[in-house]
Design goal:
Layout lengths: L1 E2 L27 H6 L1 H20 L4 H11 L6 E3 L5 H4 L7 E3 L2 E8 L5 E3 H9 L13 E5 L8 H13 L2 E5 L10 H8 L3 E5 L12 E3 L3 H12 L11
Parallel strand pairs: 1-2, 1-7, 2-3, 7-8, 8-9
Antiparallel strand pairs: 4-5, 4-6
């Protein structure tokens, strides 16, 4: 399964590409620019510092909770998310079955020594007026997300693509399927003969390949899907 920003909009986190989305008011800072320019680092941290407050306050919505229950009941073998908000983890989704392919905002990584720490370490410094929070080694902290121009974690990508190439059901929810290489999971699943479904309100480049296409909000369609898959039994039913 693959999820994107549309899964978190009901939690109050705007997506990127739709009208009024985050890219309408924010210009992404590519990773090489972050490394090369203090001005770029300051712009990056202005955006990340402000949006972290929103992400930290957000809570998993019914779509996250439905997927977490399906995974706990062994109905989802692997979920790959493009989201960096950590809401899948906070919903109780099993960590062993979750890949945050674009990283996470909940930790920071030093671009000098590679040390990783909890987000609060750098966030507190930013809120205290430090335009670019720095590690003890003197190099800048960067939230542990994958920026443009920064490579994905190879083992995560390999696992995601291998799972798609061997699955019998592939679902893309809340994603425009516009970002490569992870959107290649859809084509791999089709080649594997899997049943495919796209659950998102916007058009995607792969709509014609999907066996099922659902445009209702995912916070409505995914809880309904959970009930159908589990035969109408809720979390306290005791059914395995």
């Amino acid at each position: 399964m693959l999820t994107g920003a549309g899964l978190s909009t009901a939690s109050g986190i705007p997506d990127f590409r739709s009208p009024g989305g985050r890219w309408s008011s924010y210009q992404p800072v590519p990773f090489p620019d972050f490394l090369a320019s203090e001005e770029a680092r300051e712009a990056y941290w202005r955006y990340k510092g402000e949006t972290w407050r929103l992400i930290e306050a957000a809570r998993p919505n019914p779509a996250h909770m439905a997927l977490a229950e399906l995974a706990r009941r062994d109905r989802i073998s692997l979920l790959v998310t493009q989201n960096v908000d950590g809401l899948h983890g906070r919903s109780g989704f099993p960590e062993a079955r979750l890949i945050e392919i674009h990283g996470s905002d909940s930790t920071v990584t030093c671009v000098g020594c590679g040390l990783r720490a909890e987000r609060d370490v750098a966030q507190a410094a930013w809120q205290a007026g430090e335009a670019v929070p720095r590690c003890g080694c003197g190099a800048p902290w960067k939230p542990s997300t994958i920026s443009f121009g920064q490579g994905l974690v190879p083992r995560d990508l390999e696992r995601a693509l291998a799972s798609a190439a061997s699955c019998d059901l592939f679902v893309a929810a809340g994603t425009s399927l516009a970002v490569s290489p992870v959107n290649g999971m859809m084509q791999l699943a089709v080649r594997a003969g899997a049943t495919t479904a796209i659950l998102t309100s916007s058009e995607t480049p792969f709509d014609a390949l999907a066996d099922f296409r659902v445009t209702r909000p995912v916070e409505e369609s995914l809880p309904e899907l959970r009930e159908r898959v589990l035969g109408g039994f809720g979390p306290s039913s005791g059914r395995p």
